[in-house]
Specification:
Number of strands of chain B: 2
Radius of gyration of chain A: 26 Å
Shape of chain A: globular
Helix content of chain A: 55-70%
Oligomer: heterodimer
Number of strands of chain A: 0
Strand content of chain B: under 5%
Shape of chain B: globular
Largest sheet of chain A: none
Largest interface: A-B, 111 and 115 residues
Order of helices and strands of chain A: HHHHHHHHHHHHHH
CATH topology of one domain in chain A: MetI-like fold
Number of domains of chain B: 1
Strand content of chain A: under 5%
Order of helices and strands of chain B: HHHHHHHEEHHHHHHH
Chain lengths: 319, 313
């Protein structure tokens, strides 16, 4: 479904019967009421005000990131810094540890998104297209995860991860592999739910033809069904990337230092710490630089793929 | 079932189900179990206390406060977000030339949609840290700074935002300021959602209306809006979940995560405070279970109320 409005379609004004333009409700041959101009003016005014309310804070953050600390304090409102201080970004990157946060986030997401998509579509596919006892039960088990508040599980989850870490350190607290598995597990509920309805709509005839031709079930999935589900995979993929990139509660809970080693923080989690620490140090420009670096990549990706992102995220609600 | 199929099904399900059971289902089940004990969290000593924790919930002053704050968000977040989103979608789509059939959109509507969607892709944490700077209680904050410049706010007596527990319309001011952020970040997303739904309404419906002499406003309120009912009710449910999940904002922005003086406590913040500050894990788990039951009931009620037969085009 397109989300951009510019297609006038084949139905133009010509289809409106000519009698309409001479009716009492119309003024002049152009068929426009005088109120139209006023209304359009009002629309634009209000839309513009809201657009400024959305964009202005973002621009203000980016511009403040380029000021000196003195400027942030003395002229907080000016949008044009006296000199562009790019070193603020360097400071946030090294001293503020933004570099580490990015590295950790990318490492974790590379694993967790791949795993989520693979496991999610495998489970959804089997649940959607194969009948077996317990099928409904498993489906509802995944579904129930959508309604339960994550805070409820917090304490036992941390305890479980801690205990696992005692036996097998790579799955303990503060470990990348552990966070990958936890992200994947928590993203499964929605991924299975979404892909389930997608696999249901795929035609049976093609699956049968594949089996008749001698493909195994596994082969059928990977070389026929999965490619056919590509639009759905893109939507849910975008949803998962954004969701896991922005995740803050699970890392805050699980990426804690237990044996005194430095925390392997991800970006959203690190930003909370940064907002506290830079506050103590009064390094406001460094904080603004950190926020800028956290939001610009996402915004750029969004602007480039805006159509896919919008339909990906809204499809999640529409289903 | 044939042997090959059984093996295939098991093979495909084993890993996802195992992962889900271990990291999602098992913690939830344990939480339900702990809610019946007086477990403190740091020792292994725990005693079964039956439903005592649940009874305690009803007489807990803090919980009652948090509950009403949750209800406040539950009503206001969907209400204001949907109203604003519908209004923006209306302006965006009903403008343009009137003598054409259907929903068209004002000039530049594509660009507006891209911009309005910005907050949705940002992390709640980024939004919260950014608004922390906007809401600063001195001239360095964006809002106070602007208002001081035009003389609306006395520099000696700035707006205190997150530190303001004084009630406004019976609700602590700090909650209204948090609400503003939630609406700011949500409106664009739902506007895009509503716009998409508006555009999926077939053109001949509008042509028929225009032939019957309906104007732009009539068309919108009598045709477009009723046909959006499904989308709006789904949006309402989603916003309900988001309203229960205002924790990120409370966590990052309010003093001592729920302050000042517990004026912005919500269920989740009380839960975390009880578990990690007061060390009463059993009691905190009971809160969690109560919250889960509340959420599920709410979703069920909303689904029941908003369910109507679908209109197929």
């Amino acid at each position: 479904m397109s989300t951009v409005t510019h297609d006038p379609g084949p139905v133009g004004p010509d289809l409106v019967p000519p009698a309409r333009t001479t009716s009492a409700r119309r003024f002049g041959p152009g068929g426009r009421r005088p109120g139209t101009q006023v209304f359009n003016g009002f629309s634009h005014l209000f839309l513009l005000v809201w657009a400024i309310m959305v964009v202005y804070p973002l621009i203000w953050v980016v511009m403040s990131a380029l000021k000196s600390d003195a400027e942030v304090i003395q002229q907080p409102l000016s949008l044009i810094p006296e000199t562009l201080r790019w070193e603020n970004f360097g400071r946030a990157w090294t001293e503020g540890q933004l570099g580490n946060f990015f590295l950790n986030t990318v490492l974790v997401l590379a694993g967790s998104v791949t795993l989520t998509m693979l496991l999610g579509s495998m489970a959804a596919y089997v649940l959607a297209r194969y009948e077996f006892p317990g099928n409904r039960l498993l489906y509802y088990m995944f579904l129930s995860g959508l309604t339960l508040p994550i805070y409820l599980a917090a304490v036992p989850l941390f305890k479980g991860v801690y205990n696992t870490g005692v036996f097998f350190p790579p799955l303990g607290p503060n470990k990348h592999l552990m966070l990958i598995l936890v992200y994947a597990a928590w993203s499964l509920a929605f991924t299975v739910f979404f892909m389930h309805s997608f696999f249901r709509t795929l035609p049976n005839a093609i699956a049968e033809a594949g089996l008749v031709d001698g493909a195994s079930h596994t082969r059928l999935f990977f070389s026929v069904m999965l490619p056919m589900a590509k639009p759905g995979l893109i939507s849910i993929g975008i949803f998962n990337v954004l969701g896991q990139w922005n995740q803050w509660y699970l890392p805050t809970l699980l990426m804690q230092s237990v044996a005194g080693e430095p925390k392997n923080q991800v970006i959203a989690q690190g930003l909370i710490d940064l907002s506290v620490n830079q506050g103590y140090k009064s390094d406001w420009s460094g904080l603004f630089a950190g926020v800028t670096m956290a939001m610009l990549p996402v915004l750029i990706v969004y602007i480039v793929f805006q159509r896919q992102v919008q339909s990906g995220l809204t499809a999640g609600v529409g289903k | 079932m044939r042997y090959g199929v059984a093996r295939f099904v098991t093979g495909f399900l084993a890993l996802p189900v195992a992962l889900y059971l271990f990291y999602v289902v098992w913690p939830f089940a344990q939480a339900a179990g702990y809610s019946l004990t007086d477990w403190g969290g740091y020792s292994d000593r725990q005693q079964f206390v039956g439903l005592e924790n649940y009874v305690r919930l009803f007489s807990d002053e803090l919980i009652r406060k948090a509950f009403w704050h949750n209800v406040f968000f539950l009503i206001t977040v969907p209400l204001f977000t949907i109203a604003l989103a519908l209004f923006l979608a209306f302006l965006l789509n009903v403008g343009g030339r009137e003598d054409r059939a259907g929903i068209r959109g004002v000039f530049g509507s594509g660009l507006y949609k891209i911009i309005f969607f910005f907050p949705q892709v940002l992390s709640l944490v980024v939004v919260a840290v950014m608004w922390q700077q906007i809401y600063r209680a001195d001239g360095q904050g964006l809002i106070n700074g602007v208002l001081m410049k035009i003389g609306l706010v006395d520099p000696e007596n700035p707006i205190t935002f997150m530190h303001d527990p004084a009630p406004f319309l019976g609700v602590p001011a700090v909650l209204w300021w948090l609400l503003l952020i939630a609406v700011w970040s949500g409106a664009g997303f739902y506007m895009v959602l509503f716009s998409a739904a508006m555009q999926s309404i077939p053109k001949d419906v509008f042509e028929a209306a225009i032939l019957d002499g309906a104007g732009r406003f009539h068309t919108f309120f009598r045709i477009t809006l009723p046909l959006l009912r499904d989308t709006v009710s789904v949006a309402w449910i989603y916003l309900g979940f988001i309203a229960l999940d205002m924790y990120a904002l409370v966590f990052v922005m309010t003093p001592s995560q729920g302050g000042p003086n517990h004026a912005s406590e919500i269920f989740a913040s009380v839960l975390n405070f009880t578990a990690f500050q007061k060390g009463q894990f059993g009691y905190a788990c009971a809160m969690g279970v109560a919250l889960a039951i509340f959420t599920i009931l709410l979703a069920a009620v909303q689904l029941k109320i908003t369910r109507r037969e679908r209109i197929e085009y």
